[in-house]
Specification:
It comes from Streptomyces daqingensis. This is Glutaryl-CoA dehydrogenase. Its cofactor is FAD. Keywords: FAD, Flavoprotein, Oxidoreductase, Transit peptide. This protein is an alpha+beta fold and about 400 residues long. It folds into 3 domains: about 15-135, Acyl-CoA dehydrogenase/oxidase, N-terminal domain (Butyryl-Coa Dehydrogenase, subunit A, domain 1); about 140-240, Butyryl-CoA Dehydrogenase, subunit A, domain 2, CATH 2.40.110.10; about 245-390, Up-down Bundle (Butyryl-CoA Dehydrogenase, subunit A, domain 3). About 50% of the residues lie in helices and about 15% in strands. The protein has 11 helices and 11 strands. The protein has helices at about 15-20, 25-55, 60-70, 85-100, 100-120, 125-135, 245-280, 295-320, 325-350, 365-375, 380-390, and strands at about 75-80, 80, 140-145, 160-165, 165-180, 185-190, 195-200, 210, 225-235, 285, 285-290. The strands form 4 sheets. The protein has a 4-stranded antiparallel β-sheet with strand order 4-5-9-8, with helices on one face. Helix 8 (about 295-320) packs antiparallel against helix 9. It is globular. The N and C termini lie far apart (about 60 Å).
Length: about 400
């Protein structure tokens, strides 16, 4: 005898609750996640619409609050860093981006790019000078790799560092740099007569400037800047001693991409939960929008992709905690989760109708932000080619 599908009312579940993903997360990591979630809900979300509309964010105040929260460089050890698991860091990124991609970008650039570069490749003097202050949010860092004409191909960078006696002199321009205009220190990568090298550059060094990029339609609650080096003179001690070649900056990017694997899901989850709540309250033709089959089909499909993305993220987190996560696996996560997140945001926008384009709801803001997340830290096309090379053994970048 065929079983009948139950039509009795049931208690609604959250999309990730349907997958039971909390059972895959340890108690300590869940506690960290919940602390970050409360911070975002109570301190940040009520202000995000205004920040986004104004195209301005109190980055220095936020950095200090995030430092007090313990999320800046949280996955690093020593020098005032919390030394959490990779899983906890990923979950924190998810909660931060459930607020706004710009918020998670501030934390990612600070911890996974600027701080990680100094922590992994810096001298002890550089670590002692910068990392404790950066972990506390007292100093803000940025990461200068991308140039106006060289994004996906950093090997073509034109920024150069030349020897002048015992000093180095930097000349060049970097573009699309998060935190640049508010940073106290910039990790800048430049061509030398030998190889690409990294430099720790205090932003008050003569010849350094960081004009802010305005008129953005995405990541408006985030500081984005150009970096200009015009005869920036640095001592030998400014060089990152343990980084030579592109492997240094690319390893930093891999750290940041890992956070995006989780972060993008936070934006998608916030869109989906907002849309479910809206659909249950919105009456159309004398019944809730949520009670229509087409609505439920859309919600089911979006929840399925969100849950699959979460399972993938947690699997990659386990590999990272075990020390076995490979760059091409991070590309899998970044490609899939950002692609599905932006699809969810767009679908949710349609379900909210005209209300979906206002800042009263977060959906359009998330969708616009994810347009940037889709292309930074490696475009979707680049990650497809990374995966293709892993599958075939042939590089198709040129």
């Amino acid at each position: 005898m065929d079983e009948e599908i139950s039509v009795a009312p049931v208690t609604p579940q959250s999309p990730l609750g349907l997958f039971g993903t909390d059972s895959l997360i340890g108690e300590e990591d869940r506690a960290i996640r919940d602390t970050v979630r409360r911070f975002v809900e109570d301190k940040v979300k009520p202000k995000l619409g205004d920040w986004y509309e104004a195209g301005s964010v109190p980055a220095r105040d936020l950095a200090k609050e995030l430092g007090s929260l313990g999320v800046l460089g949280m996955h690093l050890t020593g020098y005032g860093c919390a030394g959490t698991s990779a899983t906890a860091y990923g979950l924190a990124c998810m909660e931060l981006e459930a607020g706004d991609s710009g918020l998670r970008s501030l934390v990612s650039v600070q911890g996974s790019l600027a701080m990680f570069a100094i922590w992994r490749y810096g001298s002890e003097e550089q670590k002692q000078r910068w990392l404790p202050a950066m972990a506390a949010g007292e100093a803000i860092g940025c990461f200068g790799l991308t140039e106006p004409d060289f994004g996906s191909n950093p090997a073509g960078m034109r920024t150069r560092a030349r020897r002048d006696g015992s000093d180095w002199v930097l000349d060049g321009t970097k573009m699309w740099i998060t935190n640049g205009s508010v940073a106290d220190v910039a990790v800048v990568w430049a061509q030398t007569d030998d190889r690409v090298r990294g430099f720790v550059v205090p932003t008050d060094t003569p010849g350094f400037s960081a004009p802010e990029i305005k008129k953005k339609m995405s990541l408006r609650a985030s500081v984005t800047s150009e970096l200009v080096m015009d005869g920036v003179r640095l001592p030998e001690s400014a060089v990152l001693p343990d980084a030579a070649g592109l492997s240094g900056p690319l390893s930093c990017l891999n750290e940041a991409r890992y956070g995006i694997v989780f972060g993008a899901l936070g934006a998608a989850r916030d869109c989906l939960e907002t849309t479910i709540a809206y659909a249950r309250e919105r009456e159309i033709f004398d019944k809730p929008l949520a009670a229509y089959q087409l609505s439920q089909a859309k919600l089911a499909d979006m929840s399925l992709e969100l849950g699959k993305g979460m399972l993938l993220a947690l699997h990659l987190a386990g590999l990272k905690d075990a020390g076995s996560l490979r760059p091409e696996q991070v590309s899998l996560g970044k490609l899939n989760n950002v692609r599905e997140a932006i699809a969810i945001a767009r679908e949710c926008r349609t379900m909210l109708g005209a209300a979906g384009i206002t800042l009263e709801y977060p959906v359009m803001r998330h969708a616009n932000n994810l347009e940037s997340v889709l292309t930074y830290e490696g475009t979707s096309e680049v990650h497809q080619l990374v995966i293709g090379q892993a599958l075939t053994g042939d590089a198709a970048f040129r």
